[in-house]
Design a protein that fits this description.
MinD_FleN, nucleotide-binding, 8 strands, P-loop_NTPase, 48% helix, Rossmann fold, alpha/beta, ATP hydrolysis activity, 290 residues, 8-stranded mixed β-sheet
Length: 290
């Protein structure tokens, strides 16, 4: 195990041995589709779980849900079936690794049709099967739709993924501008870059434009970059995770750096509030903004 991995594992163990924490909700979004958002979400979740965090990953990419493909698993029912009373929360969960579970999602609009009455109360009672999660990653859709903003508003952290393409950069900036009305801190990951230098230069350009035109209390944070590497497309075509297939590859090391930066944020989590844990905690927050 390399030095980077050892430090990450020690940090995670420190979090796990401390007094229990509430779940930290992390939304991963993008301005446009096709920038590798779901690839990053799935590999980030895998690396977090690998180092001992209990992770749930919620597929909220409406109409384009593809985390089942990323993890190479079959989905029979999703969260909408639970809200309709056609399945229990436990029945829809898909175990991926010992510390990682996939929560198949559904359209935000559809979800909130069932947001009142006895069925929803029953759902909230069942949701406690995930109360021990350290982290829940929400893989949102691309763009700035209302249902996406709902998830962005409910999460502790928002990560915008983009690539070094003019159209993608423009769309990422539009997402940042809209999201800045909801929160003061937004994280950015640069994907498919040739080098760290290129990634940091592009981030600085986005940040400069944001500070000039949005200003205020907005803090853009550079979370890291993922290099353009053929190993990633090889794994995606095989319906596999590159971080599992190529544990020593550059993109895997870069994912680990990003995970380490996120793990540090876990140290700042407050003591457990049962209403802020797991799937029930996420939906409680969503209801407050709905």
């Amino acid at each position: 195990m390399n030095h980077q991995a050892s430090k990450l594992e020690a940090l995670v163990n420190q979090n796990r041995n401390a007094t229990a924490k509430k779940t930290r909700f992390i939304a991963i979004t993008s301005g446009k589709g096709g920038v590798g958002k779901s690839t990053i979400s799935s590999n980030m979740a895998f690396v977090m779980a690998k180092y001992g965090l209990k992770v749930g990953i919620f597929d909220a990419d409406i109409g384009l849900a593809n985390l089942d493909v990323m993890f190479n698993v079959k989905i029979k029912k999703n969260i909408l079936h639970v809200l309709k009373g056609e399945a229990t929360v436990e029945e829809i969960l898909v175990p991926i690794e010992p510390n990682l579970v996939l929560i198949p999602g559904e359209s935000g609009e559809e979800i909130f049709k069932y947001a009142s009455g006895g069925l929803f109360e029953r759902f909230m009672d069942q949701a406690n099967v995930l109360d021990d999660l350290d982290v829940m990653i929400i893989d949102t859709g691309a763009g700035i739709g209302e249902h996406i903003q709902l998830f962005l508003r409910a999460c502790d952290d928002v990560i915008v993924v983009t690539v070094p393409d003019p159209a993608a950069i423009t769309d990422a900036y539009a997402t940042i501008k809209i999201t800045s009305k909801l929160r003061d801190e937004i994280n950015v990951i640069m994907n498919q870059v040739r080098s760290m230098k290129e990634a940091e230069a592009l981030f600085e350009k986005i940040n400069k434009v944001a500070q000039a035109n949005i200003g205020g209390a907005l803090k853009l944070s550079y979370l890291g970059q993922i290099s353009n590497d053929p190993k990633i497309s090889t794994s995606v075509k095989k319906r596999a995770l590159f971080s599992r297939d190529f544990p020593t590859a550059t993109p895997t090391n870069e994912i680990e750096v990003i995970v380490k930066r996120i793990a540090k944020k876990l140290e700042r989590n407050v003591l457990v509030d049962p209403k802020e844990s797991g799937l029930g905690g996420l939906f409680k927050r969503l209801m407050e903004h709905f």
